[in-house]
Amino acid sequence: MNVLVSRQVLCNALSLVALLLYSTATWATEPIKAFPQAEGFGAIAKGGRGGDVYHVTKLTDDGSVGTLRHGIESAPNASGRTIVFDVGGWIDLNRKLGIVDSKSNITIAGQTAPGGIGVRGHQFSVGADDIIVRHMRFRPGKDAGRVDSVGTNSDAERVIYDHISSGFSFDENFSVQASDVTLQYSTVSFGLESHSAGSLLENPHRLSMHHNLYAHNNTRNPKHRVQETLDWIDNVIYNWDTRAFYMQGTDSSGYFWTSNIDGNYFIAGPNDGGTKPISGGSQDDYGTWWGVNAFDGDKDSAHDGQNYSLGDDDFSDISSAATTWSDTRYPVADEIWQNASPKDAYLRTLSEFGATPWARDEVDQLLYENVVNRTGSIISHENKLVSQGVSNGGFGALGGVAAPLDTDGDGMSDEWEQKHGTNPQVPNNNGDFDHDGYTDLEEYLNDLGAFAAVGQIEFHGIGRYADWQRWDRRWQPSRLDVLQVRTGVAFVDAVGQQAGTLRLGYDAGGDARLYVTSGWLEITNQLVVGSRGIGRVEQYGGELRVLEGDIQILNGAYKLRGGLLATPHLTKAPRGSFEFTGGTLDADAIDFSLTVAGGTLFPGVDAIGSTGIAGDLNMESGTLVIDLESASAADLVNVSGVASLDGNIEVQLLNGFRPTAGQSWQILTARSFDGQLKVITPGFSVEQIGDSLWLVAGTSPSTLAIPEPHSLALLLLGVLGYAANRKCRQAVFALALVAVLVPASGALALQVPVIADSQLSENGNTGDGDANDSGSGTGSPINARFNDANRNEWLALKFDLSEYSDKSRFTDVSLNTYMYRGDANNTQTLRLYALAPGIAGEDWNESTTTYGSMPGFTFDADSQTRLIDGNLVQNLGAFGVSGVTAEGSVASIDPEGLTSFVQSMGNNNLLTLLVTYDVPHNGQWRIASRETTATTTGVLTGAPGDLAPFLDFTLGPVPTTSVGGDYNNNGIVDIADYTVWRNLLGGTSLLNEEVSPNVVDIADYLYWRERFGATDTGEPASFGQPAAVPEPPALSIAGLLAVAVLGAVKYRSRN
């Protein structure tokens, strides 16, 4: 940032950039997880976040471009890569495939493979940091020889495997020696005899293994030698022979291997060799915390395992291990979200294990059936499964599905990008459309691989719905999750927000609110507003869509004031209310009498649909929109009671349909009709026949009393219409809106940059002797020479910093000068001084051609720190100039004292800097020329004659109170913060802002209202109780809704 800035930034200025962006979004305070459902020690693996995208386009393994091997081996060393698949099927490896230690930060996204992806023929290994592997199959097969299916070696740290299928190994199916690793929702099964083994965990550090299926492995299910804890949680272990969970007894010479064993379900199968589920170990080498685990050892088909706790009389039925039993759980990074019982863990693991649980391949489906029916056996070759119905030599078939279109190659399908408002023609994999820390590509991958949380996820506090840290266990909601806001306030202000079922104030004592201001929230099943507690929804913009279920308003209110609300079914109880004063409602069925007081009733937005109302329809104002698609296809509203129509009817034509005169459509049925329609789309009229209202083409109503809008509304609409067609439409509209909503005393002032004033002084006079400045604007340089007798020649530079109220935020301040010219030896040492602010240099004549008198900048004979006239001067330090001989060179003057001097200026806005020689010298130097223009510097601007020196600095973050909603940063959320919000409406940032990042809009007002009275980062003391919160005038709210409409236009036309 500099004092001399370009005048071509008008659109940015109109966007009201009044403060440095400083966000208090809480997601920055905790490490973001690899993906929302990641758990355990490997949960914070970064993977390819922020890196490039590589597409696997062929299944060969020759290392050419498009192969998986090339994608791994050509990955950048640290900047990150995400590997996606445009093909599905089996990749036959010619040799071991590994991620070596120099190739960190890689994500392998198997969920993108059409029809599934698998690797066979050799081992896959990881030896690098921050690796994410999801939805992959690793099955080398017997012909690969003695290799693991998957190995993670000691060079690796922070690795997570999620939903992988690992098997067909003649050694171990999954082995680990690394640190901070998670294996979750996977299967480690079908080890091949004569060395059928599950996992060898040989001295890794910090390993989480949860919700995995281990089946048909003779031994090592797993073999545990984990330092700093193996978290072995909620796994299912079926049909071992020699060993299940195995602690190898040994003289460890100082090793002490620890584990937490809880929630697991052990099931003896047809190959049972009589070994207890837990065996081996020694008290000197092992420490174990035992929770509650189940064992079904009777080998029948009934699912009737028994739970075992440490100390039970029959505990020896499940364990013969020699270990030191711990009374408390060993420490872990994050406790796994466990099921309520081993039986529940069994059911969840069976529903979620493997590469693609939504469409299991033949091998994983066989595994599922084996466990459920207690069938199957340990095998010696994968082809043994052919007789059990598995094709392709026992591997099963994959692929056969076309990949979705990805025009820009950023890893995301065009269809998904269009839905989320990004441009499918422009790569944006590293964007962040909802400002939550996950890139757009990660959001896409998380959507493809979403699965439900173990239990209900609860929202906490007051903040953004998109803020994953406000949800239990940092579990960002997906379309499959059951969510609750019990006492919090959530703001939907971005696209891409999801829920399976959302409950507001559902539990007793609950008092929850949901604000929808922009973006969209998509709910798969159900929205429940209140129940035993109170729930409220206020929608001002954006979209809330329920896809399959309904909205139940049981105890509380839904206030639709703007945006789109779409649901198959809308219902309310006696303690519920629905207020419809704006926005658009698209509902298939409404089971109560509906009053429309300003909104739009739209049966089937942009498609033919119908709405049934179990009660009356009272259209006090607002609009009924009817789509016509053909001579026989039209929207229809069925009202069981009375239809009072005092609003408008708008007709929209779909798919190029053009009606002809005389055609008619039944658009509304009711027991009876009353009221008087105000406006009908020209070219149409309505006719009542019995209990039906018909729309007729080709005629128009004779006279309509169209109300005149308020003059201000006309202005707003006019500006909106103009702004919608301009590149900076948002900024223009916001300025116009502020101009009519904000009183003159709070009007915004656009800051105009001030060009530095400069002049020379010799013994208190300008333009004398060797110091000269013609002021002609024709190119005469500003020169200064040093007289050996006195340090009496100076170049004085004046900077007006009134635009920056808080000088303490200035960091890295330097003086940048346009040109120098040295003497013959081309080396000079100059010194920079500063006048004490506010006492000298204030009375400069600022004519561009001549300068009047000013204080003499000559040292007092008796003091090197005082000028002749007595004013103080501060020595900021010396700086050398060397090697600069040609005009056009730019030098940066950065003495150590300059930054601290500026920071200490307080409320003084005039900075006066003095430049002179440091030692007696008769050389000539130049610091600026009057003809300097942007065309010659590439940095500086101004008409010919402007002087070029400029101040360069960085504005550091404003120290904030971190009290959300405290927009004036004084430690309390009060009425003064409303004024700040009002004055910055339409801008890009607020201090202590949490909702609607990068835009100041109605969401920020609503957040302030919810936080009114707060003095800390938690909830205000009056939360949940009525508070006297100042309300803006109704006109302001109307204007804000216009902003919300503009925001919706921006989302639809983005990029």
Structure description:
- There is one protein chain.
- The protein has 1055 residues and is mostly beta strands.
- A hairpin with a 2-residue loop joins strand 46 (684-689) and strand 47 (692-697).
- Mean pLDDT is 80; it is low at 1-28, 700-792, 818-826, 840-870, 884-890, 920-948 and 1043-1055.
- The protein has a 20-stranded mixed β-sheet that branches.
- The protein has five domains: 11-32 and 721-752 and 958-1055, no CATH class; 38-394, 3 Solenoid (Pectate Lyase C-like), CATH 2.160.20; 404-449, no CATH class; 452-697; 757-948.
- The protein is built from 13 helices and 57 strands.
- The radius of gyration is 36 Å and the shape is globular.
- Residues 409-431, 761-785 are annotated as: Disordered.
- It is found in: Secreted.
- Residues 705-727 form the Ice-binding protein C-terminal domain.
Key phrases:
single chain; 1055 residues; mainly beta; Pectate Lyase C-like; 20-stranded mixed sheet; eleven-stranded parallel sheet; 13 helices; 12% helix; 32% strand; disordered N terminus; disordered C terminus; metal-binding
Main sheet record: 20 strands, mixed
Q: Enumerate the spans where pLDDT stays under 50 for 5 or more consecutive residues.
A: 1-28, 700-792, 818-826, 840-870, 884-890, 920-948, 1043-1055
Q: What value does the average pLDDT take?
A: 80
Shape: globular
Please name the CATH architecture of the largest domain. 3 Solenoid
Q: Percentage of helical residues?
A: 10-25%
CATH homologous superfamily descriptor of the largest domain? Single-stranded right-handed beta-helix, Pectin lyase-like
Structural class determined from secondary elements: mainly beta
End-to-end span in angstroms? 28 Å
**CATH overall fold name of the largest domain:** Pectate Lyase C-like
As a percent range, the share of strand residues is 25-35%
Oligomer: single chain
Task: Output the CATH class name of the largest domain.
Answer: Mainly Beta
Determine the number of helices (DSSP H or I, runs of at least 4 residues): 13
What's the number of domains? Answer: 5
Give the strand tally: 57
Radius of gyration (CA) equals 36 Å
